[in-house]
Design the sequence.
C-alpha cells in the first residue's frame, strides 16, 4: 500500500465568479422548439482556443513516488496561463487518447494558424529532451539497423562522450559498445540544430511509444494545441446529448435543505469509473443554484433538478492516492463532455437571470501494474459558455 505523503498544492478555497470573456469560444446555434442555446463548436475548439486558467496552483510529488509513476507529474501554474502549458499528455489520455497520435497525424488534422512559425526542431518536440539512444531504439526499433551517420543527433551525442569514429557502426552496435553514451539524454546536445526529420521515422511514431511521454505538456508537441477536440483519436462527441431548460437561477441567499436530497441535484462528485455522483448541498449552508425544467414538463426526469454552484459547494473528488490533492475537494459539477474536464456552475446573477460556467481539469497517472489515480478536478476555472433563464442547458450523461 502507498503510504508516502504527497506534497500538495494550493486549494481552491472558493470558486470566484469568472471575469474573463468567453466571447472567443467558437459556438453553433442550437434550438429545440422555442428554446435555444449557444453550443460549443468542437470542430473549432482546441487546447489553444480555450481561455486561460483563472487561479494559480501547483503539485509537488515526492521523489520516492516519481519512480512509481515512471515520470514526474509535478508542475505549477499561474492565473492567466494558457491551459496547453499546464496539461500533460498523461492527464487526459483516457479522455482523448493523444498518445495514439504521431507528429504526422497531428499535422494532417491541426487547424491552420495565422502565427508565422518556422519549421519545428527537435527542441520543439519537448519529450525528446529526456530520450536516450536506448529509449529511441525501443520506441523505433527500425533505428537499430541504421548507421550512426544516418542519424546526426545520435552521432553528435556519441561523439560528445568520446565515442568518435563510429559513423559506420549501426546504432545497435554503438549502443552495445558504448553503454554509458547509450544512456545519455538528448538534452546533452543542442536539439535546436536538428530538424524533426534528422531522426528517420520520428514523425511517424506514436507519442505513446516514447519514454515518459505522459510528462510532455500539450504545447511541447508541435501543433497538438491546434488539433480540434472532435479530431482527437478519441474525439469529444459533437452531439448535443441530454439537455434541460434553465428555469430560474437562485443566488447566495439560498441554503441547503434536508428536504432536497441527492436526487434533487444533477451536480456532484466525479468518482472512479469517471461518472458523476450527484451530491446535495449540506443543510443550512449557502447553496446558489440553477433550477431546470424538462421538455416533458413535470413528468420529465430533469424537472425541478438543481445544478449547484461550485462557488457554494466543494465536494469530494479524485480517486487513488492522488485523491488527497487539494484537500480531496473539487467544485460540484458534472462530466458533460466526457472525463477530459468537469463543468461547474461558477456564479449566478439572480437579477439578470444568468448563470456562468467554468471548466476544471485534473492530473491523472497510471503507474505500472496499478489502477489509474486522479486528483480532484481543481485546475481552473477556465471560463465557459454562460446560460440565461429560458435557454437550453447541456447536461450530458454525467460520464
Sequence:
Amino acid at each position: 500500500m502507498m503510504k508516502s505523503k504527497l506534497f500538495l498544492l494550493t486549494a481552491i478555497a472558493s470558486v470566484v465568479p469568472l471575469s474573463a470573456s468567453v466571447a472567443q469560444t467558437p459556438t453553433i446555434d442550437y434550438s429545440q422548439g422555442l428554446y435555444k442555446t449557444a453550443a460549443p463548436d468542437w470542430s473549432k475548439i482546441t487546447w489553444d482556443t480555450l481561455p486561460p486558467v483563472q487561479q494559480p496552483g501547483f503539485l509537488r510529488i515526492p521523489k520516492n513516488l516519481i519512480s512509481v509513476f515512471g515520470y514526474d507529474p509535478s508542475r505549477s501554474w499561474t492565473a492567466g496561463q494558457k491551459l496547453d502549458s499546464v496539461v500533460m499528455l498523461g492527464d487526459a489520455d483516457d479522455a482523448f487518447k493523444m498518445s495514439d497520435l504521431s507528429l504526422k497525424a497531428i499535422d494532417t488534422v491541426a487547424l491552420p494558424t495565422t502565427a508565422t512559425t518556422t519549421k519545428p526542431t527537435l527542441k520543439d518536440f519537448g519529450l525528446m529532451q529526456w530520450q536516450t539512444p536506448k529509449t529511441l531504439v525501443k520506441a523505433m526499433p527500425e533505428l537499430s539497423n541504421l548507421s550512426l551517420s544516418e542519424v546526426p543527433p545520435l552521432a553528435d551525442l556519441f561523439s560528445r562522450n568520446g565515442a568518435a569514429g563510429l559513423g559506420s557502426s549501426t546504432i545497435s552496435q554503438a549502443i552495445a559498445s558504448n553503454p554509458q553514451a547509450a544512456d545519455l539524454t538528448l538534452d546533452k546536445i543542442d536539439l535546436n540544430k536538428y530538424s524533426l526529420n534528422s531522426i528517420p521515422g520520428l514523425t511517424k511514431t506514436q507519442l505513446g511509444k516514447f519514454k515518459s511521454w505522459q510528462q510532455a505538456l500539450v504545447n511541447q508537441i508541435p501543433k497538438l494545441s491546434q488539433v480540434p477536440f472532435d479530431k482527437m483519436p478519441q474525439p469529444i462527441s459533437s452531439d448535443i446529448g441530454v439537455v434541460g431548460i434553465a428555469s430560474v437561477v437562485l443566488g447566495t441567499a439560498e441554503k441547503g435543505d434536508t428536504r432536497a436530497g441527492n436526487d434533487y441535484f444533477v451536480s456532484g462528485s466525479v468518482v472512479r469509473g469517471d461518472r458523476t455522483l450527484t451530491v446535495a448541498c449540506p443543510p443550512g449552508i449557502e447553496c446558489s443554484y440553477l433550477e431546470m425544467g424538462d421538455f416533458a414538463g413535470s413528468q420529465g426526469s430533469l424537472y425541478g433538478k438543481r445544478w449547484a454552484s461550485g462557488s457554494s459547494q466543494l465536494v469530494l473528488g479524485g480517486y487513488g492516492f492522488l485523491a488527497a490533492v487539494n484537500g480531496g475537494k473539487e467544485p460540484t459539477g458534472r462530466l458533460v463532455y466526457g472525463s477530459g474536464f468537469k463543468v461547474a456552475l461558477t456564479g449566478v446573477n439572480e437579477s439578470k437571470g444568468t448563470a456562468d460556467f467554468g471548466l476544471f481539469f485534473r492530473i491523472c497517472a497510471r503507474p505500472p501494474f496499478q489502477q489509474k489515480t486522479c486528483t480532484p478536478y481543481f485546475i481552473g476555472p477556465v471560463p465557459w459558455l454562460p446560460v440565461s433563464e429560458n435557454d437550453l442547458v447541456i447536461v450530458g450523461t454525467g460520464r
Remarks:
- The helical segments are 63-69, 93-96, 103-109, 133-139, 152-160, 171-177, 179-182.
- Residues 1-14, 16-20 have pLDDT under 50 and may be disordered.
- The chain is about 10% helix and 20% strand.
